[in-house]
């Protein structure tokens, strides 16, 4: 028996076959998309979104730097989450301050206390800030100095650039514990001879236990001195010493935010701020180390409220010299950075990875530390520097 198919039936069969083919193709496509692991996505992303620049200590050159400089044009807040005590990074920051100036930046936020920041401003305007920093380092605690992250000629370059480009330095952290003897001396020496004679024993007792001066002695001296700014210095020591004593990360994070907003609330709300602080402090969301909401998240949310922009950069170094030995963070058991980013190291160039468009599904195909950096930072910048941690000062 021969079946005769009408044109209408043939058309229906053709449409049904086409539908099945489209459905099969769609299901295959969706299945393919579901099976692309986060690790594969990251590798593909790195291949497309990595750029480089060179830096001779004077001027950076390359697409990577162009991208970093453009962040100043696009955002109200740019945050460099640094690795500490780097001569090369101090030099690069000095250049960055000049670039930020071109886009209207006038505030530079650093990881010092506000009184230290005021002193740095004064040194920046002096004839030779490098000599002053070197002297303060030698007069301070052995191999650590007086002020954190400002101790020699490389750091002086940043101060000179800040002064040249009319930056105000905002110090939002606690006062450095090793600077307590310096501040106690400053307060005491600013008093009249009569008051100094009367409070000599109090002062000597404070200096005898400078790392944790007694509240009663601080209060006694504070109640006697007439200068408001020096009373504030003594109060800052009281607050800071308790943060150190109790390892109070929550108190420190709160202090940073309070002191930042004390500065910020006194300027126009569109003021642009360049941050250079430890990378953990400048994360979006929770601090990588303390698991607390830190200053980075507060400023990120402030940018959202202002309808402006916040961009943060996770800076890292692969190689360090510790106790005379070369340490490779990629293979070190107690590594500080995700391995996948250490592999981007280039001995001749700075490597910049733009993470902004990378979206992952958290399928656990990547280590947890990789997910954290991707979630919390816009860029990873890998330095070619071999950081000598045995050096005295920065």
Write the layout of secondary structure elements.
Layout: H1 7-34, H2 38-49, E1 50-55, E2 60-61, H3 63-74, E3 77-82, H4 87-102, E4 107-110, H5 114-124, H6 129-139, H7 153-164, E5 168-171, H8 180-189, H9 193-198, H10 200-208, H11 215-224, H12 228-246, H13 249-264, E6 273-278, H14 295-306, E7 310-322, E8 325-328, H15 339-342, E9 350-354, H16 368-376, E10 379-388
Helix pairs in contact: 4-7, 5-7, 6-7, 8-12, 10-11, 11-12
Report helical residue fraction.
40-55%
Computed CA radius of gyration, to the nearest angstrom: 27 Å
Shape category: elongated
Major beta sheet summary: 10 strands, mixed
Question: Which structural class matches the secondary elements?
Answer: alpha/beta
Strand content: 15-25%
Number of distinct helices:
16
Order of helices and strands: HHEEHEHEHHHEHHHHHHEHEEHEHE
Low-confidence parts: none
Distance between the termini: 96 Å
Annotation, overall tally of beta strands? 10
- Mean of all residue-level pLDDT scores: 92
Provide a descriptive summary of the structure in words.
The chain has 394 residues and is of the alpha/beta class. 50% of the residues lie in helices and 15% in strands. The protein is built from 16 helices and ten strands. It has helices at residues 7-34, 38-49, 63-74, 87-102, 114-124, 129-139, 153-164, 180-189, 193-198, 200-208, 215-224, 228-246, 249-264, 295-306, 339-342, 368-376, and strands at residues 50-55, 60-61, 77-82, 107-110, 168-171, 273-278, 310-322, 325-328, 350-354, 379-388. Strands 1, 2, 3, 4, 5, 6, 7, 8, 9 and 10 form a ten-stranded mixed β-sheet that branches. The model has no long low-confidence stretch (mean pLDDT 92).
């Amino acid at each position: 028996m021969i079946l005769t198919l009408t044109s209408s039936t043939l058309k229906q069969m053709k449409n049904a076959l086409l539908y099945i083919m489209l459905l099969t193709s769609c299901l295959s496509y969706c299945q393919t998309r579901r099976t692309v692991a986060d690790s594969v996505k990251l590798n593909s992303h790195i291949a497309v979104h990595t750029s480089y620049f060179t830096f001779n200590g004077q001027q950076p050159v390359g697409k990577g730097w162009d991208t970093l400089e453009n962040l100043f044009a696009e955002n109200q807040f740019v945050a460099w989450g640094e690795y500490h005590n780097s001569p090369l990074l101090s030099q690069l920051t000095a250049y960055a301050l000049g670039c930020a100036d071109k886009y209207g930046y006038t505030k530079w936020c650093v990881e010092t206390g506000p009184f230290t920041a005021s002193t740095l401003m004064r040194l920046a305007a002096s004839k030779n800030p490098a000599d002053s920093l070197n002297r303060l380092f030698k007069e301070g605690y052995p191999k650590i100095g007086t002020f954190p992250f400002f101790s020699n000629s490389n750091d002086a370059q940043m101060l000179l650039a800040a002064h040249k480009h009319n930056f105000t330095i905002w110090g939002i952290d606690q006062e450095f514990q090793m600077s307590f003897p310096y501040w106690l001396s400053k307060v005491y020496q600013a008093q009249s001879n009569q008051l100094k004679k009367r409070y000599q024993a109090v002062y000597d007792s404070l200096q005898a236990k400078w790392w944790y001066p007694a509240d009663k002695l601080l209060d006694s001296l504070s109640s006697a001195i007439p200068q408001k700014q020096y009373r504030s210095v003594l109060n800052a020591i009281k607050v800071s010493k308790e943060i150190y004593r109790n390892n109070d990360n929550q108190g420190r994070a709160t202090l940073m935010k309070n002191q930042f907003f004390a500065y910020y609330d006194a300027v126009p709300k569109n003021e642009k701020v360049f941050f250079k602080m430890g990378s953990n402090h400048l994360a979006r969301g929770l601090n990588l180390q303390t698991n607390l909401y830190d200053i980075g998240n507060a400023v990120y949310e402030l940018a959202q409220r202002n309808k402006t922009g916040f961009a943060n950069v996770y800076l890292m170094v692969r190689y360090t010299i510790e106790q005379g030995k070369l340490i490779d963070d990629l293979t070190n058991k107690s590594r500080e950075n995700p391995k996948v980013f250490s592999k981007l190291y280039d001995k001749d160039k700075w490597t910049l990875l733009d993470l902004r468009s990378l979206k992952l599904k958290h399928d656990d195909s990547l280590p947890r530390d990789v997910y954290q950096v991707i979630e919390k930072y816009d860029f990873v910048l890998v330095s070619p520097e071999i950081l000598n941690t045995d050096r005295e000062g920065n």
